[in-house]
Amino acid sequence: MATQAPRHSYAQRASSLARDRRHTRKLSTGCPLLDASLGGGLDARGITEIAGAAGVGKTQLVLQLMLQVQLPVEYGGLGGGAILLHSAPEQATTKRLRQLADAFSVRHSRLGAEPNRLLDHVTMGKVHSAEMLAEMLSRHLPQILATSRVRLLVVDSFGALFRAVDERGAALERSSQLIAHAHRLKQLSDDYDIAVVVTNEATDKPIEQIAAAAGDIAAPSLQSLSLVSCNRPSVTVSPIEAKACCTSGKMTLPALGLSWSSCINTRLFLTRREVYAPTPLARTAFQPLSSGACQRLPSPLRDAGAQAYASALSRVAHDAARWHEVPPLELTLDAGCRQTRVARTLHVLFSPRLPSGSCDFEILQEGVRGVDDGTRA
């Protein structure tokens, strides 16, 4: 006679999962405002994608996460080191990571954080292709993860590694590789208790026709937008994606297509736009820099015009980047001598536990910081 399975086997399994802190832990971004928009931080299990166009701040954010993960759990970390697999120039990445580590150690000095110790717990590896990444995930990483306390794996940029495959026009090959890579990443996350964060590029899709009701794209009655572009199949996006990604008559969407979208657990999308600063530059003799310092601008004559202002501001921006070695000063002047700046926003496009939402942020010398709604320009 067959043995009957215990009646409460599934309930016990569900309750044990609920008690397992590995499934409920969060990795803080290091900023309370960003954490609030992410329900406490990034999931410590599964794949989180951070997508966006070049220069929007993806690498800045993941470098910050690689330091944050080293903090104890009670301080928003995961109590372990980080591995970065990247395709960018190593010198620039290392220099910026060192800069962040210096600022991070000051903020967390009471916990014994020191720049050299922080960097010692970050392992960096260069990958040049999707095939090389597959080799790393299958052979080398399991050996490292089995013998060290690593809690975060970052791939920057995942989308760039598959660009060559996409250019060959091998859609089926790329789709198969994406699914295989996602499966391996999730397996590593489960087997070794690590968070996985990958960055992805963005692609522009011209909109020729929107087969949906006219009006506000964020309207609750609008379920989806079907976008038809030249010689390409239609692309269906949700209202939150349309609101975050639709600008200037085009859609800027995360790369790699639907196959990859179905493989990841959480998708965050970073955007940037120019906004007017509240005070014209002509009203002040001092210009704040990204580092928090101030540089005195020459007092312009009333008839100098916008060109003189732009020239002065360009010199300050150049000196700021050279002196402080931070991202270029993102302040410009329009034709009316009005000061503008770059505003960045983090959007939650989809997540198994989070509603759609967004939070403005800025990149400072000490790291990525959220911007409160009350301070928006």
From TrEMBL:
KW Ribosomal protein (keyword) present: no
A biological-process GO annotation: resolution of mitotic recombination intermediates
GO molecular function, one term: ATP-dependent DNA damage sensor activity
GO cellular component, as recorded: Rad51C-XRCC3 complex; replication fork
Record domain RecA family profile: where: 23-202
SUPFAM superfamilies: P-loop containing nucleoside triphosphate hydrolases
Keywords: ATP-binding, Nucleotide-binding
Pfam families for this protein: Rad51
PROSITE patterns: RECA_2
The UniProt record lists the keyword Cell membrane: no
PANTHER family the UniProt entry points to: DNA REPAIR PROTEIN XRCC3 (PTHR46487)
Protein known as: RecA family profile 1 domain-containing protein
